[in-house]
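Renewal narrative, Specific Aim 1. Our central claim is that a sequence can be written position by position from structural information alone. The example that follows is taken directly from our test logs and has not been curated for this report. It begins with the structure tokens describing the chain, in the order in which they were read.
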């Protein structure tokens, strides 16, 4: 399985409230999302807070992910960017 396929599977399982899948999703994607957020907010502590809020949104909105419209990391990155800007 490729990384995008793994992330798709983890998002699908997260949409079903699978905490284990969500933890794996976090481990596989948090470094990249942290980098996105840090480039926007330019403060590590604030970036950590924004990242936490990002994953809360991902938890609640995982069922909205559509693989035919975006790659998983692109979708999560969009959430992270919007959260950092807000």
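The sequence written for that structure reads:
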């Amino acid at each position: 399985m490729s990384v995008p396929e793994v992330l798709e599977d983890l998002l699908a399982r997260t949409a079903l409230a699978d905490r284990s899948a969500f933890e794996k999703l976090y481990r596989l994607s948090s470094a990249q999302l942290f980098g996105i957020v840090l480039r926007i907010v330019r403060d590590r502590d604030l970036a950590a807070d924004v990242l936490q809020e990002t994953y809360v949104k991902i938890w609640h909105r995982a069922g909205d992910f559509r693989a035919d419209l975006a790659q998983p990391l692109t979708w999560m990155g969009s959430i992270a960017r919007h959260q950092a800007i807000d």
